[in-house]
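Regression check, fructose -6-phosphate case 366:
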Amino acid sequence: EKGGYDHFMMKEIYEQPRSIRDCMRGRIYPERGIVQLGGIKEYTEKLKNIDRIIIVACGTSWHAGLVGEYLIEEYARVPVEVEYASEFRYRNPIISEKDLVIAISQSGETADTMAAIELAKEKGATIFGICNVVGASIPRITHAGVYTHAGPEIGVASTKAFTAQVTALTLMAFYIAQQRGTITQGKLIEYLTELNEIPDLIEKALQANDQIKEIAATYKDSNNCLFLGRGSSFPVALEGALKLKEISYIHAEGYPAAEMKHGPIALIDAEMPVVFIATKNSSHEKVVSNIQEVKARGGKVIAIVTEGDTIIKGMAEHVIEIPQTGEAFVPLLATIPLQLLSYHIAVMRGCNVDQPRNLAKSVTVE
Ligand code: F6R
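Current build output:
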């Protein structure tokens, strides 16, 4: 049942090339630059007239929502707010019929997310769901939606469900952009072609497993760990930190790299591993200077870099390469080494990675 792996989590990490392919199947036509999302087709006209998108979710799904915010704002040019469902529902949020709410949930049963949906529905908003479990409660109370098709996720810590959520949000961002005319056909051809290659690139990213296992052995006894990234890699940092804390019980925090100097830098000493998502993109130089700041204080740097990056190699203790891809798709690749790192650290600490203490796969309590 674990497909030859020691844990469901590892099996599910390795399933990601397949789960992402399943999420995209029948939905993208790269040669023609077309995205089709049957589940929200009826709302195509509506999408042309929305003023704002509010994403509601919890935990890892909320992190996927933050990646979605970057993608939707960048390509569809609609303002996006990302809210913890548990906060949103207890405020008196300002919502109108011109708002689209996107609820993200792997299980489709999270109580706070359901309550947020009901509240937004009462106020007249259109609600889309992004869920993994077919026929769960959330898909039944939303107006329309997109299934992630990642397949059953058994490990309590979300892995393949997260990358499938990010994939579904990417498709949704392009779909909305296509409807609203904020993206050219030529660009869509280019982006969809890149997106279509992501499963193969994840396959390549997984080849760093042995190297990551060695790095894990070096840091398994750490008490704290910091994860830093900029832009759409900031939510990846948050997700990396959540994964580490939930399965290894090491205290970890994710921060936008530039925020480090406003506080967390005080924590850095020779005992502190700092994981940077430092891929080649528009903010590469800035991240390089953030790495220098950590190095100057004796911190140990583990950097996730783009294949062939020589600048960071000379600075970081450890460099984990991921293949080159378009900026929009970096979160899908950069997440992989972070999942593997948490997994190996947790196993080496003797933790029950598939069933971490105090956690449940679906949180149906408020
Ligand atoms: C983390 C994790 C949780 C869930 C959260 C929301 O690995 O699994 O943080 O992401 O409880 O669950 P869903 O997506 O089922 O609404």
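Comparison notes: The radius of gyration is 20 Å. The pocket of fructose -6-phosphate is lined by residues 58-61, 105-107, 110, 113, 157-158, 242, 246, 362-363 (CB under 6 Å). No diff flagged against the previous build.
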